[in-house]
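As a warm-up, study this chain.
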Amino acid sequence: MIIRRCVRHSLLIALLCLTLFPSMAQGKTLIQLSRSLDARPVWEALAAGADPHERDKDANTPLHVAAAWGSPDICRALLRAGAEVDARNKYGVTPLISAAGQGRFANMVVLMEAGADVNAASDGGGTPLSTSFMAHGPAALEALRVLLERKPDLNVRGKEGDTPLSSGIGWVEASRILLLLDAGADPNIPNKRGQTAVHEAVRFDRVALMEPLIRHGADLNAPGQYGTPLQVAAQNDFTAMAEILVANGAKDTHPSSRPTPRPERKKEEYPLHRAAQSQFGLEDVRRLLKEGADPNQADGFKKTPLAYAVHEGRLSTVILLLEAGADPNVSDSQWDSPLHLAAQNNRPEVIKYLLQYGVKPDRMGRMDTPLQRAASLDWYGSAKVLIDAGADPDLISGMGLTALAYAAAKPDSRVAPLLIASGADVNLQGRAKLSPLSIAVGKHNTGTVNLLLAHGADINATGPGGASALHVAIGARYPDMAELLLKAGADGAQQDQFGRTAMHVAARANDLTVLELLVGKGYAVDEPDRLGRTPLFGAAMSGRQEAATYLIRQGADVMARDRGGDTLLHQAALNNQRDSCALLLDAGADINALNKHGKTPLDLVIARLDNKGRVPAETRRQLADLAEFLMAHGARETAKK
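Now compare it with the structure written out below.
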């Protein structure tokens, strides 16, 4: 749209393209070129006349592909060339949904800054939020954070009536669930079957999630297709879950609850299993064993009597079963061994006996070791027994984290100092590329941050996206944590992989406290990132007026240009930020400045209005208002100069 294709009919230009643009000569389409991290071939293809609106067999545009697999620079290039930000493929999926599904948070930022609809739903009912919530990958959590900053509908319902929270609470990791709850997701919205997020958490026996659900107002007596949450726990023999529900006010029945029998296979009888988990079942266990009961029989969940005894902390029963030949190394359907269950439920005495029977302390389950499990729940007693038995604190979990990284996420962790004392590497990063320090900073765990720094944590170590702990603190809106890190020696000029410094992040976060700290320490207000954009660009493009005003007062250059030749006013206008445009004009910005393509800020606004693709009605109204505002202040289109 901005880059015109008027030269594509020139024979001379066509011949030059064959020579200078080998990717085009080799017959690659723009869609194929967009599936890359290298933006140069895309720029070349667009300059040679490639169509940013082309479609593949599934109606994906180049922007769909770039959003999911390409780089932010490619997304920007396509958008500047007129790509429709909310284009839909054959399945109704938008580029933002594509980016969310792959956890490409940097691409999501580019799309949202260009006006992508954060609530657009695909034909299957998936939205950017529901897709991001379910996404895999080390950057998925950051992608969810980025999306939540744009205030999407947290309780949007899919075709079956499920919200993102209720559809994913059974298996999505706890950190994302807590993020959604803290943002205001409602745990009490029923789906078409009457099941709420609480029912689903109970159905999957996610005991650790009950406390945050209850804290956020979960209705423990809500009726559902299979009854109340307590009835669901009873139907599945989830004893620990039932105890938590009862302790927090759940009732045996609900006057409006008419549970439908589950369409499940007929349950077998497991008397030894029931006796093993009972508080008064020791003599029954002894009797059943004498009668020939198999101590290694597995039930429908592949749990043996030993697993239930361990889960409930029935030490005498555990000893009796072990002496009768129970296998301490067998795993259940979730790959949890008895040692994992003991660590999860903080049964240090049980752990000691299991270790005496030859269980290896570092046994890996589906995703973690027993020590990592104990650390993630801050169970000091269990962690100490495992460490004393030789458990390795530096093993990496299936999530790419160390035990210390898990501990760092817990407020006032007691396990973190225990791990450090045992020799845990305070700087070790696993596949997730998250340091314990960055995790503690992101969770605002000041005590653990100080502990890690005192034991040699690298304050400038980088994680996903090249972000340092200081980047994390500022992005999480923790000015006190940022101040702590700066005083401890954090480098405020350090750049992430996009070239953004702490000043860039603070400007986009509209954090005046941190901006004042950074300016007070002498950091430059006009340091450019990889795109040549200063911190003022981020503030102006995202409508952070307080930050923009402060930076201008501190001498930020209102005529600065990025690598694409755009001024601040070009980008503020392109991103539909009327107040930012007014602020920049008041500060002396040139309203008719030309970028590298010979376009004024007004040209960019009109180009968005002329876009043949779908532009939401409210966005179109705002753009029209912005165009009128610019013209009232003397703006001209290049064609009318």
